[in-house]
Amino acid sequence: MEPRFNLAANELGAKIGKRFYNVSLAIEQSALPKAVQDLVMLRASQINGCGFCVDFHSKEAAAAGETAVRLNLVAAWRESSVFTVAERAALALAEEGTRLADAYTGVSDATWAAVREHYDDDQVTALVYLVAMINAANRLGVIVRTPGGSYEPGMFATLAS
């Protein structure tokens, strides 16, 4: 697969990308556990078929200490025993918030209740924004065909400066 366009190489794309990154940084620095953030971003990226995002989030999660077993089972989290009840609630929210056009009517009341049971207001805020932002990032990657496979953990650390 050949990429169609490099958004970061375009002046406007770089300007917007920096703001997009800053929103993502605020979420990353929130009280929402990093492991939950990684699992949610990986699952949404799998659903949306963004190769670059799956590559990025699986490698970053592994570099942060996430186990290969859990990373490999994210796609089948409902049929796995390696995720906590709180992580399952977040993964359900990620799936329902991602599959809006797949005959879903949005996030179910049961999923929302599970999320509220396990996360405080700040964590819920971060989780909702995280689902929205990863879906936006997935769409950017898929539209311009950013390929997966070459990401190295920490590659974008210089964006913070």
From TrEMBL:
Mind telling me which Gene3D superfamilies this protein's record contains?
Answer: AhpD-like
Annotated InterPro entries: AhpD-like (IPR029032), AhpD_core (IPR004675), CMD-like (IPR003779)
Record domain Carboxymuconolactone decarboxylase-like: where: 26-96
Q: Which Pfam families match?
A: CMD
Q: Which SUPFAM superfamilies match?
A: AhpD-like
On the tree of life, the source organism's domain of life is: Bacteria
- PANTHER family named among the record's database cross-references: 4-CARBOXYMUCONOLACTONE DECARBOXYLASE FAMILY PROTEIN (AFU_ORTHOLOGUE AFUA_6G11590), BLL7811 PROTEIN
Put simply, this protein is called Carboxymuconolactone decarboxylase family protein
